[in-house]
Fold this sequence. Notes:
The complex is a heterodimer. Chain A has helices spanning 14-17, 22-28, 35-46, 51-61, 65-74, 94-98, 101-112, 158-171; strands at 86-91, 125-130, 142-146, 149-153. Chain A is an alpha+beta fold. In chain A, α7 packs across α8. Chain A starts with 13 loop residues before the first helix and ends with a helix. At the A-B interface, α3, α5, α6, α7 and β4 of A face α1, β9, β13 and α17 of B.
Amino acid sequence: MxxxxxxxxxGCDKSQQFKELAPVLEKYAKVPGxxxxxxxxxxxxxxxxxxxxINYISEETGxxxxxxxxxxxxxxxxxxxxxxxxxxxLCKGTACHVNGAxxxxxxxxxxxxxxxxxxxxxxxFTLNNVACLGCCSLAxxxxxxxxxxxxxxxxxxxxxxxxxxxxxxxRA
Amino acid sequence: xxxxxxxGSCGIATGAKxxxxxxxxxxxxxxxxxxxxxxxxxxxxxxEPIVDVYDDDDxxxxxVKVQPENVSAIVDGHLAxxxxxxxxxxxxxxxxxxxxQKRVVLRNAGTIDPENIEDYIAVDGYKAAEKAISSMxxxxxxxEIKISGLRGRGGAGFPTWFKWNAAKQxxxxxxxxxxxxxxxxxxxxxxxxxxxxxxxxxIEGMIIGGYSMGATEGVIYCRAEYPLAIKRLELAMEQxxxxxxxxxxxxxxxxNFDMRIKAGAGAFVCGEETALIASLEGERxxxxxxxxxxxxxxxxxxxxxxxxVETFANVPWIIFNGGKAFGDMGTEKSKGTKVFxxxxxxxxxxxxxxxxGLPLKDxxxxxGGGIKNDKKFKAVQMGGPSGGCVPAELxxxxxxxxxxTKTGAIVGSGGxxxxxxxxxxxxxxxxxxxxxxxxxxxxxxYCRIGTKRMLEILERITAGEGKDGDIELLEELAGKVKDxxxxxxxxxxxxxxxxxxxxxxxxxxxxxxxxxxTAKSCKPLITYEITDKCKGCTLCSKKCPVGAISGEVKGxxxxxxxxxxxxxxxxxxxxxxxxxxx
Lengths: 172, 582
């Protein structure tokens, strides 16, 4: 575990490879109970938690990688695979379910050719079903997170969802 | 003049930000003397985006469904000439949605700017905290809460004063007061609207609670799925700190109290107190055995008190107006008001706050306006995955903790999902079991494996492969999962199944024995047919994605059942009502 070499193959130092994480670790590494916060910030920076990132956090905090993996897999928010440029969070809450969220999902799956949790081949979209976005009066709803923040779309229909995704694709 | 645009998450989702930007632009272009402000969710979600125009005497005109293209009419008419645009003003009927409510928790929702502490102070904000800390003893505060009869609004309905008192009695080096803002029930958004629309009321409630038990620090455990709520809370805390409402020597006394936010990472089980504490400590959010209760050994093994957002938001009102005023509302055992999130197949969805004891009918039909498209009301789901379905025949049930529990459902955190004749109750049970199975932390065998087996049975039934004995097996498993689980998640997970079997057993039997879904919702159990109303316009055959529909122009069309994927596109496209579902 004491290998300081990077895994990006360029021969740099590991601390160089994860330099964006340095201020986060400086602030939280020694504060007990901060693992979830560190993982959240790491995911914000890199988009997901790679094995290398988990190992690096382990070395810097002294928390065993197995435990970090345990926490990362427990919570719905954490991803161990990279995602596309836009993350589609399709709400599957009760109100959305009653108002046809499954039909919206079918429409997205058909249109983008990806299933829940998968990323399109061009790396543009990742589809993720989520428990509830709390915009129940506008059901069915989805939130799309992209480089310019997140946007919520309500009262979806199987056709409107396709138009929205096409619009995003044009902008990207 | 002031133009205030409602910008909660749902308002923004309907385009409120674009509407506000359009106002800014046009006011500037036309050089008018008007300011554009922001407020949280008013609660009438079905009318978003909502724009309030205040004239110089502070008289309010409320416009609804204001999209950017409607802005110029209001700017040119109302702002420039002082002539309100009548067509877009909220109707008298829609006004009733709010007028029929009794707003305590939502007292400031949709009226103040959540990003400006001065707005909150102007409506007597932080006066309750000042009153409590500078003129009451901790025991007097707890006594006032006891008189109010306030019970936990997160679901369990436990008396708040009792928890506060227990935390006060226990000694510890540190003492924590925690707010559970991890609103995990799918279909509930009461807390989100308070967090986004009136964050200071939560902060003030926590200051008062913290003072009563001698807490040294407050922590808000908020869902990561609510980015706007986190942003506004952080801003509100910073403003409170600058005003001296948080930090050292509050209100000139020697009481010190500060707080912070911890973003949750998405786990329903973290609604359980001990799991929430584990998560705060950076661990997997798994519950542990009680006792010791968190009031004795909680966060970092110190005395800890956890309440829900709505509970805290009630506190400043109670201290300011007195416990009796709160206790005068509601029933003998369920006092005060309760906020419900009305959604599903309802005409007017949104946030509804009513005195406890009001019959369900008054909420769903009186305020919510009844069922969308005037379909038949079938049931209302209350309490999310831990709750159950209350059927149409029990619509007169008063909304109190006791009466709702008798039906097999629970008041829970306040989600009310209304269902009509097209909602399949077996599918509803399957939906919730799918949710609880995914969210089970896996510690107890019955919860981990039992919910999985129950889900498999329900999946079989909704797929048309139900067997004789399935209902009885579900009932048996439900009992065992309840008994064999340590925490509330497992103990209540079977409720949606049990209540649907109790009130809609015939639907289960129809699925199993007659291979029929009466709600016409379970795909494997329905067929699409074209009747002789067909004019042969060929539209449906063009829309069918799998080419299952054939027929000559102007001739009767037919659906090839082997090819049909039951997507429903044909029925949507038919202009002659010629396609039926059986």
